[in-house]
Automatic annotation (TrEMBL):
Signal peptide range in chain numbering: none
Main location (coarse class): cytoplasm
Annotated protein name in UniProt: Deoxyribose-phosphate aldolase
Active site: 89 (proton donor/acceptor), 153 (schiff-base intermediate with acetaldehyde), 182 (proton donor/acceptor)
CDD domains named among the record's database cross-references: DeoC
Function (record text): Catalyzes a reversible aldol reaction between acetaldehyde and D-glyceraldehyde 3-phosphate to generate 2-deoxy-D-ribose 5-phosphate.
One Pfam family named in its UniProt record: DeoC
UniProt record similarity statement: Belongs to the DeoC/FbaB aldolase family. DeoC type 1 subfamily.
Source species: Chitinophaga barathri
Length: 220
Protein backbone atom coordinates (compact mmCIF):
# COMPACT_ATOMS: atom_id res chain seq x y z
CA UNK A 1 0.00 0.00 0.00
CA UNK A 2 1.47 3.33 -1.09
CA UNK A 3 -0.13 5.24 1.76
CA UNK A 4 1.44 8.52 0.64
CA UNK A 5 -0.84 8.72 -2.39
CA UNK A 6 -3.90 8.51 -0.18
CA UNK A 7 -2.95 11.51 1.97
CA UNK A 8 -4.14 15.11 1.89
CA UNK A 9 -1.48 16.74 4.10
CA UNK A 10 -3.47 19.34 5.98
CA UNK A 11 -3.13 22.54 7.97
CA UNK A 12 -6.33 24.52 8.56
CA UNK A 13 -5.79 26.15 11.93
CA UNK A 14 -6.99 29.77 12.14
CA UNK A 15 -3.51 31.06 12.94
CA UNK A 16 -1.76 29.31 10.04
CA UNK A 17 1.41 31.12 8.96
CA UNK A 18 3.39 31.38 5.73
CA UNK A 19 6.06 29.21 7.36
CA UNK A 20 3.45 26.57 8.16
CA UNK A 21 2.41 26.46 4.51
CA UNK A 22 5.99 26.26 3.29
CA UNK A 23 6.75 23.38 5.65
CA UNK A 24 3.53 21.60 4.74
CA UNK A 25 4.23 21.84 1.03
CA UNK A 26 7.87 20.83 1.33
CA UNK A 27 6.84 17.74 3.30
CA UNK A 28 4.12 16.96 0.78
CA UNK A 29 6.56 17.15 -2.10
CA UNK A 30 9.16 15.09 -0.24
CA UNK A 31 6.69 12.30 0.51
CA UNK A 32 4.71 12.70 -2.73
CA UNK A 33 1.39 13.16 -0.97
CA UNK A 34 -1.77 13.32 -3.06
CA UNK A 35 -2.53 16.89 -2.00
CA UNK A 36 -2.05 19.63 0.52
CA UNK A 37 -5.18 21.15 2.06
CA UNK A 38 -4.72 24.77 3.07
CA UNK A 39 -6.82 27.79 4.12
CA UNK A 40 -8.16 29.82 1.16
CA UNK A 41 -5.72 32.76 1.57
CA UNK A 42 -2.79 30.38 1.05
CA UNK A 43 -3.86 28.64 -2.16
CA UNK A 44 -1.66 30.75 -4.45
CA UNK A 45 1.36 30.30 -2.18
CA UNK A 46 0.83 26.55 -1.95
CA UNK A 47 0.64 26.38 -5.74
CA UNK A 48 4.07 27.98 -6.02
CA UNK A 49 5.58 25.51 -3.54
CA UNK A 50 4.06 22.47 -5.27
CA UNK A 51 4.58 23.60 -8.86
CA UNK A 52 5.93 20.89 -11.13
CA UNK A 53 5.01 18.06 -8.74
CA UNK A 54 2.17 15.54 -8.57
CA UNK A 55 0.85 17.05 -5.33
CA UNK A 56 -2.44 18.89 -5.81
CA UNK A 57 -3.63 21.90 -3.84
CA UNK A 58 -6.97 21.67 -2.03
CA UNK A 59 -8.77 24.30 -0.01
CA UNK A 60 -12.00 24.58 1.97
CA UNK A 61 -15.30 26.38 1.48
CA UNK A 62 -18.06 26.91 4.02
CA UNK A 63 -15.50 25.85 6.61
CA UNK A 64 -15.76 24.69 9.33
CA UNK A 65 -19.48 24.84 10.21
CA UNK A 66 -21.16 24.70 6.81
CA UNK A 67 -23.86 27.27 7.52
CA UNK A 68 -22.61 29.93 5.10
CA UNK A 69 -25.23 31.07 2.63
CA UNK A 70 -25.20 29.39 -0.76
CA UNK A 71 -24.12 32.70 -2.30
CA UNK A 72 -21.13 32.80 0.05
CA UNK A 73 -20.10 29.27 -0.88
CA UNK A 74 -20.40 30.22 -4.55
CA UNK A 75 -18.13 33.22 -3.99
CA UNK A 76 -15.62 31.13 -2.05
CA UNK A 77 -15.63 28.48 -4.77
CA UNK A 78 -15.09 31.02 -7.53
CA UNK A 79 -12.22 32.68 -5.65
CA UNK A 80 -10.60 29.30 -4.95
CA UNK A 81 -10.77 28.45 -8.64
CA UNK A 82 -9.37 31.86 -9.61
CA UNK A 83 -6.46 31.17 -7.25
CA UNK A 84 -6.04 27.81 -9.07
CA UNK A 85 -7.06 25.38 -6.35
CA UNK A 86 -7.29 21.88 -7.80
CA UNK A 87 -9.73 20.52 -5.24
CA UNK A 88 -12.43 22.11 -3.07
CA UNK A 89 -13.55 20.58 0.23
CA UNK A 90 -16.99 22.09 0.89
CA UNK A 91 -18.82 21.72 4.19
CA UNK A 92 -22.48 20.89 3.60
CA UNK A 93 -25.05 22.94 5.49
CA UNK A 94 -25.16 20.94 8.72
CA UNK A 95 -28.11 22.93 10.05
CA UNK A 96 -30.10 21.83 7.01
CA UNK A 97 -29.02 18.20 7.44
CA UNK A 98 -30.00 18.11 11.08
CA UNK A 99 -33.23 19.97 10.32
CA UNK A 100 -34.14 17.60 7.49
CA UNK A 101 -34.21 20.41 4.93
CA UNK A 102 -33.14 18.28 1.98
CA UNK A 103 -34.58 20.69 -0.57
CA UNK A 104 -32.14 23.36 0.67
CA UNK A 105 -29.24 20.92 0.50
CA UNK A 106 -30.23 19.93 -3.01
CA UNK A 107 -30.38 23.59 -4.05
CA UNK A 108 -26.94 24.14 -2.50
CA UNK A 109 -25.20 21.33 -4.35
CA UNK A 110 -27.11 22.00 -7.58
CA UNK A 111 -25.83 25.58 -7.50
CA UNK A 112 -22.22 24.64 -6.74
CA UNK A 113 -21.72 21.68 -9.10
CA UNK A 114 -21.86 23.59 -12.43
CA UNK A 115 -19.12 25.92 -11.18
CA UNK A 116 -16.92 22.97 -10.25
CA UNK A 117 -17.55 21.02 -13.43
CA UNK A 118 -17.19 24.02 -15.74
CA UNK A 119 -13.65 24.51 -14.46
CA UNK A 120 -12.92 20.75 -14.16
CA UNK A 121 -12.14 20.87 -10.46
CA UNK A 122 -12.61 18.18 -7.82
CA UNK A 123 -15.23 18.62 -5.10
CA UNK A 124 -15.33 16.84 -1.76
CA UNK A 125 -18.51 17.39 0.26
CA UNK A 126 -17.96 17.26 4.02
CA UNK A 127 -20.96 15.90 5.94
CA UNK A 128 -19.51 15.74 9.50
CA UNK A 129 -20.45 12.07 9.93
CA UNK A 130 -19.38 11.96 13.57
CA UNK A 131 -22.34 14.08 14.66
CA UNK A 132 -24.97 12.67 12.28
CA UNK A 133 -27.44 9.84 12.67
CA UNK A 134 -26.97 6.83 10.41
CA UNK A 135 -30.08 7.71 8.42
CA UNK A 136 -28.75 11.24 7.87
CA UNK A 137 -25.47 9.87 6.55
CA UNK A 138 -27.36 7.58 4.19
CA UNK A 139 -29.53 10.44 2.91
CA UNK A 140 -26.41 12.55 2.33
CA UNK A 141 -24.84 9.75 0.32
CA UNK A 142 -27.98 9.41 -1.79
CA UNK A 143 -28.22 13.16 -2.42
CA UNK A 144 -24.59 13.74 -3.33
CA UNK A 145 -24.49 10.60 -5.44
CA UNK A 146 -27.30 12.03 -7.59
CA UNK A 147 -25.20 15.11 -8.26
CA UNK A 148 -22.03 13.18 -9.02
CA UNK A 149 -19.67 14.76 -6.53
CA UNK A 150 -16.14 13.40 -6.58
CA UNK A 151 -15.87 12.59 -2.87
CA UNK A 152 -18.04 12.51 0.21
CA UNK A 153 -15.85 13.40 3.18
CA UNK A 154 -16.43 12.37 6.76
CA UNK A 155 -15.34 15.33 8.83
CA UNK A 156 -13.85 18.78 9.17
CA UNK A 157 -11.73 17.85 12.18
CA UNK A 158 -13.53 20.52 14.22
CA UNK A 159 -16.40 18.41 15.56
CA UNK A 160 -16.05 16.36 18.73
CA UNK A 161 -15.92 13.15 16.69
CA UNK A 162 -13.99 12.62 13.48
CA UNK A 163 -13.61 9.72 11.07
CA UNK A 164 -14.64 6.22 12.07
CA UNK A 165 -14.41 2.88 10.33
CA UNK A 166 -18.15 2.45 10.88
CA UNK A 167 -18.99 5.70 9.10
CA UNK A 168 -16.73 4.94 6.14
CA UNK A 169 -18.21 1.44 5.85
CA UNK A 170 -21.74 2.89 5.89
CA UNK A 171 -20.84 5.52 3.30
CA UNK A 172 -19.20 2.97 1.01
CA UNK A 173 -22.33 0.81 1.20
CA UNK A 174 -24.56 3.69 0.11
CA UNK A 175 -22.36 5.39 -2.49
CA UNK A 176 -21.84 4.21 -6.08
CA UNK A 177 -18.37 2.92 -6.90
CA UNK A 178 -17.43 6.04 -8.88
CA UNK A 179 -17.82 8.34 -5.87
CA UNK A 180 -14.87 8.26 -3.53
CA UNK A 181 -14.65 8.72 0.23
CA UNK A 182 -12.27 10.99 2.09
CA UNK A 183 -11.79 10.16 5.75
CA UNK A 184 -10.53 12.93 8.00
CA UNK A 185 -10.59 14.01 11.61
CA UNK A 186 -8.44 12.39 14.28
CA UNK A 187 -6.32 10.23 11.98
CA UNK A 188 -2.90 10.12 13.59
CA UNK A 189 -1.60 6.58 13.06
CA UNK A 190 -0.82 4.38 10.08
CA UNK A 191 -2.86 1.55 11.62
CA UNK A 192 -6.01 3.69 11.77
CA UNK A 193 -5.43 5.09 8.28
CA UNK A 194 -5.10 1.55 6.93
CA UNK A 195 -8.33 0.50 8.65
CA UNK A 196 -10.16 3.41 7.03
CA UNK A 197 -8.72 2.57 3.61
CA UNK A 198 -9.70 -1.07 4.02
CA UNK A 199 -13.22 0.12 4.86
CA UNK A 200 -13.41 2.07 1.60
CA UNK A 201 -11.67 5.42 2.00
CA UNK A 202 -9.58 6.49 -0.98
CA UNK A 203 -8.24 9.68 0.56
CA UNK A 204 -7.03 10.42 4.09
CA UNK A 205 -7.01 13.97 5.46
CA UNK A 206 -4.39 14.36 8.18
CA UNK A 207 -2.02 16.80 9.81
CA UNK A 208 0.01 13.91 11.27
CA UNK A 209 0.92 12.72 7.78
CA UNK A 210 4.69 12.58 8.31
CA UNK A 211 4.27 10.52 11.48
CA UNK A 212 1.91 8.20 9.59
CA UNK A 213 4.59 7.72 6.93
CA UNK A 214 7.22 6.95 9.56
CA UNK A 215 4.95 4.38 11.14
CA UNK A 216 4.15 2.87 7.73
CA UNK A 217 7.86 2.37 7.06
CA UNK A 218 8.17 0.17 10.14
CA UNK A 219 4.88 -1.75 9.74
CA UNK A 220 4.70 -2.65 6.07
Amino acid sequence: MKINRYIDHTVLKPVTTVEDIKNLCMQAVEYDFAAVCVPPPFVKLAKTFTAGTTTKVATVTGFPFGYSAIEAKVAESVLAIIDDADELDMVANLIAIRGGDWSYLEKEIATIMPIIRNKQRVIKVIIESGILLEEEIVKCCELYARYGVDFVKTSTGYAEKGATVEAVTLMRKHLPANIQIKASGGIRTFAFARELINAGATRIGASASVEIMKQAATMQ
